[in-house]
């Protein structure tokens, strides 16, 4: 890098048309050093043990509540189509006061939007249901 100290032709008041990049390089080097020093501190995460995947076959009991949600968002209570979540709420409110409280099993189609399943979960929560589970197909052993 060169620096012009003066001109040889005697024009000392001439405007300098070159960009001085020295301050820019200085700032970039300082930022690089800061990032190199702080990145190991930021990347240190708390050591935790994440849960492992388990797939346990659950025996269904006759008193368990089965709710089916198809890909169009239609809800079924034991093969009976429900008009809306208010009707589902009334059914679940009756079930939630039983002792012991039955489990609610949601069977959602693979192409069902999460919005429809979320409405069922929210309705079950409002009705006071303690245990909600999702029924899935077991993975192939092969």
From TrEMBL:
GO terms for molecular function: transmembrane transporter activity. The keyword NADP does not apply. Keywords: Cell membrane, Membrane, Protein transport, Transmembrane, Transmembrane helix, Transport. It is found in: Cell membrane. It comes from the Bacteria. GO terms for biological process: protein transport. It is a single-pass membrane protein; Single-pass type II membrane protein. InterPro entries: ExbD. The chain crosses the membrane at residues 24-43. The keyword Membrane applies. One of its GO terms (cellular component) is plasma membrane. Belongs to the ExbD/TolR family. This is Biopolymer transporter ExbD.
């Amino acid at each position: 890098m060169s620096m012009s100290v003066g001109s040889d032709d005697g024009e000392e008041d001439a405007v300098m048309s070159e960009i001085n990049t020295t301050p820019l390089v200085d700032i970039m080097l300082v930022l690089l050093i800061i990032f190199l020093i702080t990145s190991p501190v930021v990347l240190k995460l708390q050591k935790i043990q994440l849960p492992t995947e388990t797939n346990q076959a659950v025996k269904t009991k006759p008193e368990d509540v089965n709710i089916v949600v198809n890909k169009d968002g239609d809800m079924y209570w034991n093969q009976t189509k429900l008009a809306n979540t208010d009707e589902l709420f009334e059914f679940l409110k009756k079930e939630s006061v039983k002792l012991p409280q039955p489990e609610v099993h949601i069977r959602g189609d693979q192409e069902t939007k999460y919005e429809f399943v979320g409405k069922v979960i929210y309705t079950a929560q409002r009705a006071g249901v303690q245990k909600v589970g999702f029924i899935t197909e077991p993975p192939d052993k092969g």
